[in-house]
Amino acid sequence: MNAQFKKGVLELLVLECVRARDMYGYELVEEISSTIDVKEGTIYPLLKRLTNERYFETYLRESTEGPPRKYYHLTAAGVLRAGELRREWMEFQHGVSEFLKEHEHAKN
Amino acid sequence: MRKTEFLTRLQASIAVLEDNEQKDILDEYSQHIDMKVKEGMSEAEAIDDFGPIDELIEEILGAYHVKAAAADVAAAQKKEHVTEQAASAVADVAKTGYTEVKGSVHEFFTNAKEVTAGARASISRATDTLRDKWEVRRASRDTQPYQLQQSHQPHRPHRPIASKGVLGLLSGAVSLTWRACKTACRWIWNACVAMTAAALAAMALCLLFAFGFCLVFLLLGYPLAGVVIASLGGMVATLSLTGLVLMLIRRHPSHTLPCEPRACARMEQPSDEPHPTTDVESEYDPNTATRPLETRPFESEAITHA
Fold this sequence. Notes:
- The complex is a heterodimer.
- By secondary structure, chain A is an alpha+beta fold.
- Chain A is built from four helices and three strands, in the order αβααββα.
- Chain A has a three-stranded antiparallel sheet with strand order 1-3-2.
- In chain A, β2 (56-61) and β3 form a beta hairpin.
- The two termini of chain A are 27 Å apart.
- The N and C termini of chain B lie far apart (114 Å).
- Residues 147-152, 255-271, 273-284 and 289-306 of chain B have low confidence and may be disordered.
- Chain B is mainly α.
- The interface between A and B is medium-sized, with 18 and 20 residues.
């Protein structure tokens, strides 16, 4: 898949995943990787950026399987950002689909 | 690439960030690799899934709005600055330490000289006091009137016996009991004083050991000047106390033997006056007394002391 496509929707997918429930880094990476093929290492910098921009809050929770895990929680600003990105994506996706449909018809 | 190598390289690249941010990032990647390894992957495979490390570093720094090239320069400068700071701090500490040790050693030897001079003066004063006391005792012994007894302990001073008979015997028994009690008390007192002196001497010995021990370490550069001076002072103090305590020992009142020429020379030839049953001390003159004890006419009688 085109890397630019993946790069564009990655933020939306991450925000939507955490919006549903709080998740830790590895769990989030696994969730995203199962949807689109991305380099796992690139998700952590994205998480860090979104945290720095106050869309995420982090907290540590004890784990029985090892050291404490850092969980990500969507803030109010993150909810608004996720909604905004979702609208943009829907408009973008609709616009691109309509464009392709028209040109398909025109070709025919 | 192994996990340690990956994390080391990552840390070097993000050194421009704050320490807590660096730790946060490294912990996350380390935890991710550990979970991948737990699922059955190798460290190298887990690290390969991250993608090229340079792109990864660029994206991490991008999240903090830091350019990768600038980050390398800044990291190098930061490292150099830290090294310079550390070197200058070590030099300062060494210089300060050397100055302090030099000052401490000089102060220690100055104080030691003063303490030694003070101790010498104290010891000479104590020696003089002891000598004076000894001279006084000798002089008082020389001026004491000669005393004889018919008892089995001729060296013991006699108390006056009022008269013969029951009252006299009772008085003698009381006197003997009193003397025995005094002797016992003197022995107990001397034993306590001796034990105290022994304890103080032991303490002085321990302080001497501590002084020598700490002096060695002080000369090696450890900051033990205070301990050394304190142990030296404590040792001198306990030794002085030991000497003072020993002076409290009460000695048995000394008596001279009947045949000692000095004792014999003490008694003055009685004059025409009646035989003195009381104190003859006022008549005794050690410079003029010549008659030996054996030649005195009243040798067999007990001379009472008023």
